[in-house]
Automatic annotation (TrEMBL):
It comes from the Eukaryota. This is Protein YIPF. The keyword Flavoprotein does not apply. Keywords: Membrane, Transmembrane, Transmembrane helix. One of its GO terms (cellular component) is Golgi membrane. Coiled coil: none annotated.
């Protein structure tokens, strides 16, 4: 009987020791979580991300904001001038500032050089260039292009830069004279813009539907180039 009593006492003591160890382990884990060193180790990577420095521009000077946006637009224009560069940057960091400037500038040039009632007005040129690019973009999306609507609109608008440069040369320096030279300059701008646009948009379509994408883009830049050559 004494042996059974001693065994029960030993079991009770063992249970108390195990309970004490569990309590010590729990208290140690909680203390470890609240310790400054452990907290810094766990939250260190999150503290390195400075969201305010990247996105908050409310306290930034206006000139710095304008300069950054101008440099961004200029970088996208350089991708159109040299289509063999980083094509993904224009698609990744899309914006509509460049297309807006080109549409407005082209409409102002053609209206200024018209001088007659048959000349296109500002709203007509702007509508053709803007809604024409929207229609071409909608065609790309309907054909199953793996590109967003605004990315496609950005590419088509920025690739109007060569025809716009041709319009500047023909309107300011060759207005009303040297038709063969104006035709050559406008044709170069047309081919350049089509080639640059397909460099960005060609890989966004299946091979079987690539011709259905090229034709509307070709037609859009041809209409814009025809307006430039006929009203300069």
């Amino acid at each position: 009987m004494n042996s059974f009593g001693n065994a029960s006492v030993d079991i009770d003591m063992l249970e108390r020791e195990m309970a004490a160890e569990q309590t010590a382990n729990l208290s140690g884990n909680i203390a470890g979580m609240s310790a400054p060193k452990s907290s810094s180790n766990r939250r260190g990577p999150m503290q390195e991300v400075d969201l305010d420095a990247e996105f908050d521009t409310l306290e930034e000077p206006v000139w710095d904001t304008v300069k950054r946006d101008v440099l961004t637009v200029g970088a996208k224009f350089s991708h159109v001038i040299l289509p063999h560069g980083d094509k993904q940057q224009l698609l990744r960091d899309w914006d509509l500032w460049g297309p807006l400037f080109i549409c407005v500038g082209l409409a102002l040039l053609l209206q200024h050089n018209g001088g007659t009632e048959s000349a296109p007005q500002f709203t007509q040129v702007f509508t053709i260039t803007f809604f024409g690019s929207v229609i071409v973009t909608a065609n790309i999306k309907l054909l199953g292009g793996n590109i967003s609507f605004f990315q496609s609109l950005c590419v088509i608008g920025y690739c109007l830069l060569p025809p716009f440069a041709a319009a500047v040369l023909c309107s300011l320096f060759l207005h009303g004279i040297a038709f063969p030279l104006r035709l050559l300059i406008t044709s170069i701008g047309f081919v350049w813009s089509t080639y640059a646009a397909m460099g960005f948009l060609g890989g966004c379509q299946p091979d079987k539907k690539r011709l259905l994408v090229i034709y509307p883009v070709f037609l859009f830049y041809f209409i814009v180039s025809w307006m430039i050559i006929s009203h300069s």
